[in-house]
Amino acid sequence: MIIEIGHYALVLALAAGIIVSVVPLVGVRRLDEAMMELAPTGSFVLFGLVAFSFGVLTYAHVVSDFSVANVWENSHSLVPLIYKYSGVWGNHEGSMLLWLLILTLFSALVALFGRNLPDTLRATVLSVQAWISVAFTLFILLTSNPFARLDPAPAEGKDLNPVLQDIGLAIHPPLLYLGYVGFSVCFSFAVAALIEGRIDAAWARWVRPWTLAAWTFLTAGIAMGSYWAYYELGWGGWWFWDPVENASFMPWLAGTALLHSALVMEKREALKIWTVLLAILTFSLSLLGTFLVRSGVLTSVHSFASDPTRGIFILCILLIFIGGALSLFAYRAPLLSAGGLFAPISREGALVLNNLILTVATGTVLTGTLYPLVLETLTGDKISVGPPFFNMTFGLLMVPLLVAMPFGPMLAWKRGDLLGALQRLYVAAGLAFAAAVFFFYIEHGGPVLAILGLAAGLFMVFGSLADLWYRAGIGKVAAPVAWRRLVGLPRSAFGTALAHAGLGITVLGIVAVTTFQTEHVVEMKPGGSVEAGGYSLRFDGLQPALGPNYTEDRGHFTVSRGGVAVADVWSSKRLYTARRMPTTEAGILSFGLSQLYVSLGDPMDDGGIVVRIWWKPFIICIWGGALVMMLGGLVSLSDRRLRVGAPSRRSRPAPQAMEPAE
Asked: Which helix (H) or strand (E) is 260 found in, with range?
């Protein structure tokens, strides 16, 4: 009975969503306070109903209720408890319910923290959020019902996909969805501003915290997904330019541009049209990613579903929301004033350059992802666009961005001094180049261009520190005064420095592992050894082991340096008994920021086994940099100016109405 109640709660959520999507908008038109006030109340109710429905599905998984088709297809009585919880969203139906849960959560958060918003704007934003909720609730009810029953109920489940039986499933999808869906708030603010015909610096100030929160979660989600694929798939790679990886990367690029564009709009009331358009496009790319993953139009290890009916339904959602928003933008954009003027050499100019590069990079990734699909649809020819295309095009676009990024914070608003910025950064540039040459030397050489890549990453790190150094006046004023200035800087300054430094650390890791990693594919028998990264690995043999729902053969390796054993590492081949599906569990050993990666291959007839061994110098910098970027986002969010979000209603000036562009 509880399962049917959970299903009925979704039906009630649909009804609540329809009410919230219509009544507050009518109230805005009539300036009826009671009707507008229905928006926050209805958003809380909508979230409560979806949360209850999600809780019921979770309960069904935890108690192994195999009368529910979703549980039967994606669980097993022997699955560890953590995978019963995470298995709720380890499938198409459950993941869509998680998507809807996070969407309604953001609506409730806007209702809770948006009390300083004008009543009409808050009501309109929550109504637009409700439109999206209604669309995805309909999608779940009509095509992806997670509460479908089986009669008679099977005695045992099919088991969760073995690749998903990992802690990564508990972390990666929720973080990714918090990023994806978080951009829906920016989209709703943009559409609401276009509907009302009002946009100004206060609007940008309201949007920035939501953009920053979504960007932070998406950064964490992408990084976690990268590391999960790295250690789980046993391929030794951290990024494959898989179409579904690209689907999450494109909103991140557009969201980064939106974050910087909103800053310019808040500070200088410039780039209004561009900021609104980016808010629409960023969430549109999130919806596009949902379509790619669930429509079956592409083949990927990340794909959830291949049902054409679902694909057509999501395509309709895409057309309605993206097409409708862009049509509204095209109608309203000519009425938007362009905003303040600024010189090309200024902080605004640097941020515009940042936006242009990020937007072109997003378009490049989009083209490489969709071109094979479009070509096959039009001509029937099948081609693949792989890493060489993305590495060349995307990599070349990032070079000027990495070089220019440290200059932005050094330039003044409206009109900057490029020579002054150069004078402040030449020490950071010199240190970065010297450190890159030293790194190149200790790694025993490689492509000379690697020095420039290493220097670019280090320049971003040192440039971020230089910004804080000069703002505090270190070396120019007494130490106590400099310390007071440093600790007195707004938290957003530290957040910006951390985010830029984190990107530099990630670039350093990418260049190092791409240039200096070594790979060995060898057949090994017990007692055999191989050298990798200055270490010697001795294969000690295979040992059988039994897990809760799998059997495995574990390969033990002793790691030595200079003839002295320093560690051991295990790598295994598992067979999950329910699905009879094999997986490879890589053995990973960290030495500082570098890693030794061991993956077992197929056994040979002569008693040996194929082993792949990688030495990956400084690879941890890739994900460590992402963590630093995420920390930067959280520090910026803690800034009081962003937590307040807007002045009180009494003192807030009226928003600026749209004016005809000159």
From this structure: helix 243-268
Residue 3 is inside which H or E element, if any? helix 2-30
The pLDDT of residue 443 is 80
Please state the pTM of the whole predicted model. 0.92
**C-alpha span between 223 and 205 (Å, rounded):** 28
CB 648 within 8 A of CB 116: yes
Question: In the predicted model, what is the mean pLDDT of the chain?
Answer: 89
pLDDT at 69 over 60: yes
Give per-residue burial for 639-656: e unless 16+ CB within 10 Å, then b: beebeebbeeeeeeeebb
Tell me which residue has tokens 């923290």. Answer: 113
Residue 36 CA, chain-centre distance (Å), reads: 33
Of the candidates 400, 391, 458, 396, the residue with the CA atom closest to the CA atom of residue 428: 458
Tokens 């108690």: give the residue: 63
Compute the distance between CA of residue 576 and CA of residue 579 in angstroms, rounded to an integer: 6
Q: Identity (one letter) of the amino acid at 273? A: I
Describe the strand order of the beta sheet including 564-576 as a list of residue ranges: 529-532, 535-546, 550-561, 564-576, 581-585
Q: How far is CA 17 from CA 96, 100, 135, 615, in A?
A: 16, 12, 9, 53
Terminal CA-CA length for the chain: 64
Is-contact 576 551, C-beta < 8 A?
no
- Using DSSP's 3-state secondary structure scheme, residue 602 falls into strand
Residue 299, pLDDT score: 53
**With bands split at pLDDT 50, 70 and 90, how would you rate the model's confidence at 648?**
very low
Which one-letter amino acid corresponds to residue 88? V
82-127 confidence digits (pLDDT tens): 999 999 999 989 999 999 999 999 999 999 998 888 999 999 999 9
Per DSSP, the residues of 324-365 read HHHHHHHHHGGGS--B----SSSHHHHHHHHHHHHHHHHHHH
Q: What angle do CA 185, 186, 192 make, to 5 degrees?
A: 85
- Distance, in Å, from the CA atom of 504 to the CA atom of 405, rounded to the nearest integer, reads 10
Give the whole-angstrom CA distance, residue 325 versus residue 477.
Answer: 52
Q: Which residues of 51-69 are buried (b: 16+ CB within 10 A; e: fewer)?
A: bbbbebbbebbeebbbebb
* Tens of pLDDT, residues 303-331: 555 566 777 888 888 899 999 999 999 99
Are 544 and 553 in contact by the 8 Å Cβ rule? The answer is yes
Dihedral angle, C-alpha 240, 242, 244, 247, nearest 10 °: 80
> Rounded distance, CA 159 to CA 17, Å?
34
